[in-house]
């Protein structure tokens, strides 16, 4: 596919969810321990079905989140092809401190050890974001998936502060600008409202975020999982932010 292919960023629909989850799975592969643990068996048919179900529930029940897809045209019929997705959320309050406040943990992680490991990952994962929200003095932050109220609207939704919670681009469609377009969508929204943007990024994604104006606040998030899980792979994530222009 030629780099000249045009990429558009639009709202994704409920029916797009299975394709988007497949893009997520293919994007991260098994190179991102947090994704592997948060979406168990995401590269299997059953894991993708379960992951799609959870992603759909998230979309349908989070009024402060914007779910986007990056699309291009491909094939002899010039058909729309979903090549990336992102979730930006306006966060008014800190995320749940405990995983079981956000997920049906026994259903998603039936194995007791897997459930406990993911619970501990979650506790560490939300610490930087929670502190950022507290430091905003009630104004809020704009991140990968979170959106807040303001006088400015995009796609008819009021926004306040934002966090980029999810970003994925299919590996077969890299270097078309889909990732940058999805990140810039949220950054532009944050700028319009004078809000700070945040993301917990992988080392691979860091270069993209920095090109979009984000800077590291925490070089590597500390994950305290205990000695009993010392042999398990832990995520390597950098916490980045961007002041509004």
Automatic annotation (TrEMBL):
As one GO molecular function, the record gives: acyltransferase activity, transferring groups other than amino-acyl groups
* SUPFAM superfamilies for the chain: Acyl-CoA N-acyltransferases (Nat)
Q: What name is this protein filed under?
A: N-acetyltransferase domain-containing protein
- Superkingdom is Eukaryota
Give start and end of each N-acetyltransferase domain. Answer: 89-236
Sorted alphabetically, which Pfam families does this protein's record hold?
Acetyltransf_1
């Amino acid at each position: 596919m030629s780099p000249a292919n045009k990429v558009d960023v639009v709202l994704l629909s409920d029916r797009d969810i299975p394709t988007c989850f497949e893009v997520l799975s293919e994007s991260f592969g098994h190179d991102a321990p947090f994704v592997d643990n948060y979406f168990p068996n995401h590269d299997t048919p059953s894991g993708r079905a379960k992951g799609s179900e959870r992603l759909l529930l998230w979309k349908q029940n989070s009024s402060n989140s914007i779910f986007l897809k990056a699309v291009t045209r491909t094939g002899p019929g010039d058909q729309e092809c979903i090549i990336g997705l992102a979730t930006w959320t306006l966060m008014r309050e800190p995320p749940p401190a405990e995983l079981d406040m956000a997920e049906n943990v026994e259903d998603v992680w039936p194995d007791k050890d897997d459930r406990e490991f993911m619970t501990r990952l979650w506790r560490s994962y939300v610490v930087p974001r929670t502190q950022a929200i507290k430091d905003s003095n009630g104004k809020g932050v704009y991140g990968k998936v979170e959106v807040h109220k303001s006088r400015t609207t995009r796609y008819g939704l009021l926004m306040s502060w934002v966090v980029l919670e999810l970003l994925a681009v299919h590996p077969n469609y890299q270097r078309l600008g889909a990732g940058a377009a999805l990140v810039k969508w949220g950054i532009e929204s944050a700028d319009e409202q004078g809000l700070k943007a945040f993301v917990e990024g992988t080392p691979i994604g860091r270069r993209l975020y920095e090109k979009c104006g984000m800077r590291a606040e925490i070089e590597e998030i500390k994950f305290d999982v205990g000695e009993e899980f010392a042999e398990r792979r832990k995520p390597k994530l950098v916490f980045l932010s961007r002041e509004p222009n």
